[in-house]
Design goal:
Layout (H helix, E strand, L loop, with lengths): L5 E5 L5 E6 L2 E3 L7 E4 L2 E3 L8 E3 L21 H20 L1
Length: 95
């Protein structure tokens, strides 16, 4: 993916082809979005109408190509919770 949101496919025969472009959207009130689950949101009257466009246009953000998003999971807390859950379930398994 390029910084302007263009998605490029590389095929086994060596052909490289642009296959699409990522669209970005913005609303005037992010808190007004309806949470649909699975990281999906819908515009509502409270959020305002979504304005869409390509990366870097119309005041929209930009796409960083070649970057990985860092996890927002606290791995130490998750391992602690896993250990606690295993210890709690251990006595019930022995019966």
């Amino acid at each position: 993916m390029s910084s302007n949101g263009t998605v490029t496919a590389s095929y086994s025969n060596g052909e490289i082809q642009n296959v699409g472009q990522l669209a970005l959207a913005n609303v005037s009130n992010l808190q007004g979005l309806q949470d649909l689950g699975n990281s999906e949101y819908a515009a509502t009257l409270a959020s305002g109408t979504a304005s869409t466009g390509a990366s870097g246009t119309g005041g929209l953000g930009t796409v960083t190509d070649g970057a990985l998003e860092e996890s927002n999971v606290n791995i130490a807390a998750e391992f602690s919770d896993l250990i606690i859950a295993q210890r709690v379930s251990r006595p019930t398994r022995r019966r």
